[in-house]
Design brief:
Helix content is 52%, strand content 15%. The strands form 2 sheets. The protein has a 5-stranded parallel sheet with strand order 2-6-1-7-8, sandwiched between helices. It has a 3-stranded antiparallel sheet with strand order 3-4-5, covered by helices on one side. With 220 residues, the chain is an alpha/beta fold. The chain has one domain: P-loop containing nucleotide triphosphate hydrolases (Rossmann fold, 3-Layer(aba) Sandwich). A hairpin with a 2-residue loop joins strand 3 and strand 4. Bound molecules: cytidine-5'-monophosphate (C5P). The site of cytidine-5'-monophosphate has 15 residues, from helix 2, helix 4 and helix 8.
Length: 220
């Protein structure tokens, strides 16, 4: 069974998708990390982000692996490196390239073959797995999402302002929604889950109940 979890940055997708997969004993796929890994590799190897065919070739030859919570690119642990601001900015450009998306879509489908999986991203329910048994679009108001991110960042000692976070979140949402291929959008048959006012536990319980109502079961 395939459960897709799409939605904007900061809606709590990663936390919810990971927790859901753990509860079910299913595989978890972070497709944002895959785009980030390609961006990291392009920056690292000096491949121009303007040169979309070259970035797509690079994506095709990279070995992106997930090992528990770690992300490995050709054996290098890039878990932290793919979360920097430079890589986040480059990721948006990499994700705009249709040729890169083609490569990513194929890899994601290969990963999901023959297993129960919770897969998280922007285009999982619309493009990658249009026949998924359950599609969820997880969202929250822009202010709530920015508040959560601001709390996380200031807890790490980062002095960033709420206004800055809100503005960069808005820019990312706009770019993700405006992309000609693989734009962020809820599939017509997606269940919309708004997480304003819900804690992580409540979100996971809600998702588990949706999976069960679609006939999904935890692996023994
Ligand atoms: O989910 P995360 O914020 O890590 O994703 C990083 C970026 O990768 C997103 O802002 C989006 O531009 C891109 N992305 C995408 N399609 C996906 C997952 C992520 O275009 N399925």
């Amino acid at each position: 069974m395939i459960v897709t979890l799409d939605g904007p940055a900061g809606a709590g997708k990663s936390t919810a998708a990971k927790a859901l997969a753990r509860r079910l004993g299913w595989r978890y796929l972070d497709t944002g990390a895959m785009y980030r890994a390609v961006a990291w590799a392009a920056l690292h190897r000096g491949v121009s982000l303007e040169d979309q065919p070259a970035v797509a070739d690079l994506a095709d030859t990279l070995e992106i692996r997930f090992d528990a919570d770690r992300v490995l690119v050709d054996g290098h642990d890039v878990t932290q490196a793919i979360r920097t601001q430079d890589v986040t900015a480059a990721t948006r450009r990499v994700a705009d390239a249709a040729a890169v998306r083609d490569v990513m879509v194929k890899q994601q489908r290969r990963i999901a073959a023959d297993c129960h999986i919770v897969t998280e991203g922007r285009d999982q329910g619309t493009v990658v797995f249009p026949s998924a048994e359950l599609k969820i679009f997880l969202t929250a108001s822009a202010a709530e999402r920015a508040r959560r991110r601001h709390r996380e960042r200031t807890a790490c000692g980062d002095q960033v302002s709420f206004a800055t976070i809100l503005a960069s979140q808005q820019a990312r949402d706009d770019a993700d929604a405006a992309r000609p291929v693989g734009a962020m959008r809820a599939a017509d048959d997606a269940m919309l889950v708004a997480t304003d006012g819900m804690n992580e536990q409540a979100v996971v319980e809600k998702l588990v109940s949706l999976v069960i109502s679609c006939g999904g079961q935890a692996c023994p």
